[in-house]
Amino acid sequence: EKLNLDDSQWEDIHVVTGALKMFFRELPEPLFPYCFFEQFVEAIKIQDNATRIKSIRSLVKKLPRPNYDTMKILFEHLKKIAAKESVNLMSTQSLGIVFGPTLLRPEKETGNMAVHMLYQNQIVELMLSEYSKIFGS
């Protein structure tokens, strides 16, 4: 649908952010496909940072092309938001909290929701802070 972003309804950044989150939340499958959930969780648990980044990068490269392309653009945008943290108060950690559970979730919720949420946040945070290593050529 064509949108007129000059329309006053889009002046409140929370409306735009809410619409973006709703779009990703209502996809039939999350941006990080269900079959990758456990693999990303295992990767974020790796203690050595260089190995962790390498593992996340490898998983991202295995994603279906539309997921990869969308993810790359979204994370590039979120990186720009984090770069203006002093103005908008959105750090990579804050963005992880906001977008982690929306972009990455298990197909079936188990009793590990709080633990999963921690990993979801950490995965998004790492991907933002190490964007160039994960998405670079």
From TrEMBL:
The keyword ATP-binding does not apply. SMART domains: RhoGAP (SM00324). This is RHG15 protein. GO terms for cellular component: cytoplasm; membrane. It is found in: Cytoplasm; Membrane. SUPFAM superfamilies: GTPase activation domain, GAP. Its main location: cytoplasm. One of its GO terms (molecular function) is GTPase activator activity. One of its GO terms (biological process) is signal transduction. Residues 1-135 form the Rho-GAP domain. Keywords: Cytoplasm, GTPase activation, Membrane. It is a peripheral membrane protein.
